[in-house]
Amino acid sequence: MTRAAAIAAYLAALLAVDSQVGIDGQRALGVLTWLVLFALLVRFPVERRAQAIGVVVFATIGEVTGSLIWGVYHYRLHNLPLFIPPAHGIVYLSGLALVGIVRARWLVVVAAVGAVGWGIAGLTVLPQLDVAGAVGVPLLCVFLWRSSSRATYAGVFLVVAALELYGTSIGTWRWATELPGLGIPDGNPPSGVASGYVWFDVMALLVASWLVAQVRKAKAAAADVGSHRVERRNDLVRDKPAFVGQLVDQAPPAPDAIGPVDDGRDDRHPAPQREEPVAVRLAVARVAPDTA
Asked: In this structure, what DSSP letter does residue 178 have?
């Protein structure tokens, strides 16, 4: 609960401060937000860290495409603020934190009801007609219904909805009244904006899971190779217990088993002092008689 509240408070303060500073202040907020993201990542398991980084990557691609290239929305200074990419990772982590304190079923129900209600309101009672957003709502509902990660998507949707309403109300960013080039009416913010975040999360979960699995396989393979090397090294000295655990090339040379010739038996070498019987066969030569 404390972590989720702290993350939400930071994001709200971040947007509020950004609305009051220039480009230099925005850059400072960017550096700070990256540090906050890294500080949060160390508190999550490896797979969650990979997922959050994946969200940052895919969301940044979406930001560049939607804001700078397509112009579906624009930020206050008509740029991509430095704090936006890491903030996407923090939003994802805040959704995970929300999942940890609220029952998954309730999260999914609240998210689905909220998305559908918002989509209907955008088509009927909201001051800015929101057809584009309403198109995105069914996609979000499909993920909330069928995906095994529905609770995560629901938590992220609730965080995104709150930030979108807050960010547009204070002028941090603004959505176009129509999708450029298509003429489809769009809300500010659109009701289906969370469906875009769902795509970021879906791609991040897929890629992160694959990457983590590959890294684990590589580590397991390296450990297996290392164990085989140890076994081969031990095989070389298996008959010499004193050498176990010691590199072969570092072992002292074995003493000469025979030793120097010791006729006087002064050096007490066992090999030359050992009396050994010698078998001798007597051979008698016989001369064959002359038959001539």
From this structure: B
| Strand pairing category for 173-175 and 73-75 | antiparallel
pLDDT digits 0-9 by tens, 115-172: 999 999 999 999 899 999 998 899 889 888 888 888 988 999 999 999 999 999 999 9
Sequence ranges of the domains in the chain: 2-215
* Strand residue runs (E) in the chain: 73-75, 173-175
- Say if residue 189 is preceded by a cis peptide, omega within 30 of 0: yes
CA of residue 57 relative to chain centroid, distance? 12
Range 166-175 burial, b when 16+ CB lie within 10 A, else e: ebbeeebbeb
Tokens 């769009």 -> residue? 186
Amino acid letter for position 247: L
Neighbours of 250 (CB within 10 A): 7
- How far is residue 134's CA from residue 115's CA, in Å, rounded to a whole number? 9
Neighbours of 10 (CB within 10 A): 17
pLDDT digits (tens, 9 = 90+) for 37-91: 999 999 888 888 998 999 999 999 999 999 999 999 999 999 999 999 999 999 9
Q: Please spell the DSSP secondary structure of 145-169, one letter per residue.
A: HH-TTHHHHHHHHHHHHHHHHHHHH
DSSP 18-59: HTT--HHHHHHHHHHHHHHHHHHHTTS-HHHHHHHHHHHHHH
**119-122 contacts: CB < 8 A, separation 24 or more?**
119/191, 119/192, 121/191, 122/187, 122/190, 122/191
